[in-house]
Amino acid sequence: MYMQVTNDTIRRRPMPESAGRDSEGSAGTVIYVGKPHPAWTAVRQFLGERHFSVRETRTPQDAAVAEHLHCANLVVIGEIDGLRGAHEVCADIRRQRYNVPILLLTPAEDAISRILGLENGADAWSASDADSRCTIAQVRALLRREAAHATAGVPGHEARTLRAGDIVINAAAREAAIGNQRLDLTTLEFELLWSLVRHAGQILSRERLAQLIGYGPDSTQGRAIDSLVGRLRTRLGAARGRQIRSIRSVGYMLCVDARLPDGVHAAFA
After folding, report:
1. Same domain for 95 and 143?
2. Does residue 180 share a domain with residue 95?
3. Would strands 251-254 and 244-247 be described as parallel, antiparallel, or unpaired?
4. Are residues 48 and 121 in the same domain?
5. What is residue 103's predicted lDDT score, i.e. its pLDDT?
6. Contacts of 8 (CB under 8 A, 6+ apart)
7. What is the pLDDT of residues 200-215, one digit of tens each?
8. Largest pairwise CA distance in the chain
9. Same domain, 180 and 143
10. Same domain for 197 and 96
11. Is 6 inside any structural domain?
12. Which of 86, 115, 150 finishes a domain?
């Protein structure tokens, strides 16, 4: 049996009163933090056409952010005025235990900002200087995922549970445990564990893992995936963490029976 993550642990947005619309007739709320940018302008138009309420602010200290975080479906973070970086805004949101999806808008060449943002709670990134259709696709994907999570416990939306040994993970309730010990995972760590458990015994390349957990296009740098795997291993503890095997020059595999398939060589056993 695994413990449920309560509202005291993670603040979730309230369930909409009807499918696709909240009580005010909006499809949901999206917050943008950052300077005006053409990439965001295209996203804002897309959201407006789909009846989302959009809140914009240049600075993360704006009261609008704190006022609407509790009911936001998505937070998009672009270039921010002042000394604070996007990764610090991500960290602040997670520190307050909001699990709203976060999308970073950063220049394609700014790998450091992407890595810092993802490691501090962002769920995905999109290149601010890329085709705006890529950014819109990322927004759509995050909103779909958030909507699926919001239906946990609603009749007609049955929980999906996976098991690998004594690791139990429930996608709808966003719960994961080893035996009866609940795991305290970030959004990306949860998505990574779900992907590894779902494909237990299969080798997943870094590129495939990046795709499965919702990283943006061109976000398959080894450092970001390797860092995320390292954090997940720590969360799982020494014994379970070692079940995530590093496959030389390829990627990773969750090995439930602690034995690698014939012909597969791990970086460590």
Report:
1. yes
2. no
3. antiparallel
4. yes
5. 93
6. none
7. 888 999 888 887 887 6
8. 58
9. no
10. no
11. no
12. 150
Residues sharing a CB contact under 8 Å with residue 55, sequence separation 6 or more, in sequence order: 29, 30, 31, 32, 64, 65, 68, 72
Residue 253, pLDDT score: 93
What total number of domains does the chain contain? 2
134, 196: one domain: no
Q: What's the confidence (pLDDT) of residue 20? A: 41
The alpha carbon of residue 45 and the mean position of all alpha carbons in its chain are separated, in whole angstroms, by 24
Give the DSSP per-residue string, 83-122: S--HHHHHHHHHHTTB---EEEEE-TT-HHHHHHHHHTT-
145: its two tokens: 């995922």
Residues of the chain with pLDDT under 70: 1-26, 60-67, 81-84, 97, 148-160, 172, 215-222, 257-269
* CB neighbour class for 14 (10 Å; exposed up to 12, middle 13-18, buried from 19): exposed
Domain boundary among 150, 184, 219: 150
- Predicted confidence at residue 153, as pLDDT, reads 44
Q: Write down the pTM of the prediction.
A: 0.54
Contacts of 171 (CB under 8 A, 6+ apart): 159, 160, 161, 162, 194
Q: Are residues 79 and 106 in the same domain?
A: yes
Residue reference for tokens 């494909």:
199
The amino acid that residue 262 corresponds to is D
170: its two tokens: 């429930």
Using CB atoms within 10 Å of the CB of residue 269, give its burial: 0 to 12 exposed, 13 to 18 middle, 19+ buried: exposed
The domain containing residue 190 runs over which residues? 161-254
CATH number of the domain that residue 106 is part of: 3.40.50.2300
Tokens of 140: 């759509």
